[in-house]
Amino acid sequence: MSGRLVVLGSCGAWPEPGRACSGFLLEEKGFRVVLDLGYGTLPRLLELLGSVVGDGIDAVVITHRHPDHMIDLHGLFRARWFGRRGAPSIPLYSPPGVLERLATLEEGDAEAVRQVFDWRETPSGRIALGPLHLETWALPHFVPNVGVRLSCADFTLAYTGDTGLDPTLADLGRDADLYIVEATSRDQQPDTPPSPTAKPLLLSAREAGRAATAAGAHRLMLTHFWPGNDREQSRAEAAAEFGGEILLAAEGLVVPLGTQPRADPPRPAHFPR
Questions:
Q1: Which of 151, 172, 227, 249 could form a disulfide with 223 if both were Cys (CB 3.0 to 4.6 A apart)?
Q2: pLDDT band at 194 (very low <50, low <70, confident <90, very high)
Q3: Domain 3-257 belongs to what architecture?
Q4: How many CB atoms neighbour CB 220 within 10 A?
Q5: 173 backbone dihedrals φ, ψ, rounded to 5°
Q6: Lowest mean pLDDT among 62-66, 71-75, 255-259, 264-268
Q7: Cβ-count burial of 271 within 10 angstroms (0-12 exposed, 13-18 middle, 19+ buried)?
């Protein structure tokens, strides 16, 4: 096996009981990249690392500043500030606004935040990130959001963060071994208050399947499920648009990447419950 992806959280907006919001850990050749850290993801991450202070993280990538994608970054800040002060800062890639939101949770102490995290705006081009290459694309959402593509010789992983339909989704996930696409499907909860904008800026599961097909992705993982949604219904709706393997993000799911045969099932990780 070349690398692996571990799902830290799979919910959108707020976490269902026993679950967490958006978050993933990508491991490749001993290099660990965290993708988003929403509500409830930090304890799972620390358990995986075997470190109460977050040792072992090589980089963090945050897609946007909504709390269901970044709020546990504050917990990680505190673990490093109080438990590893003076350690090398962790590279943090994100659109503008994430670091500022983090600083407000520390009474505006931006200097302390910058000692823990070496913030870098998400790149518009391709850059090296350990054994991986990182690329990002701006995608439409209520606040600045980027889709993330991480690749190496053995695999390509793409992740949308939150987004509305956009032609860029095809480029983001082009030929990806695993395309992680948000499938909020607010339509499953008709009593939910409507979107604050006339233009939908979150996807349905059917639209997620359509995006994966347009990209020519090999596998699709649905994530960012609205609390209370029927996830098997989401899988069925995505399958109407995408003929490849469809995974449902679930806390603790481990997905092999690279040289591992695609037919091998994901394995559950061991997390505290």
A1: 249
A2: confident
A3: 4-Layer Sandwich (3.60)
A4: 30
A5: -100, 15
A6: 264-268
A7: middle
Query: What's the Rg (C-alpha) of the chain?
Result: 17
- Residue 67, classed as helix, strand or coil, is helix
Cβ-Cβ contacts under 8 Å for 56 (sequence gap 6 or more) = 32, 49, 50
Letter for the amino acid at 25? L
C-beta atoms surrounding 226 within 10 Å: 20
Residue 242 CB burial class (10 angstroms; 0-12, 13-18, ≥19): buried
Is the pLDDT score of 59 beyond 90?
yes
At 158, the amino acid letter reads: A
Please name which of 188, 256, 270 lies closest in space to residue 219, comparing C-alpha atoms.
Answer: 256
**In the chain, what are the domain boundaries?**
3-257
Residue 264 predicted with pLDDT over 50: no
Of 101, 138, 107, the residue nearest 123 (C-alpha): 138
- Which of 9, 105, 122 is closest to 60 using CA atoms? 122
- pLDDT of 271: 42
- In this predicted model, what pLDDT tens digit does every residue of 224-239 receive, in sequence order? 999 999 999 999 999 9
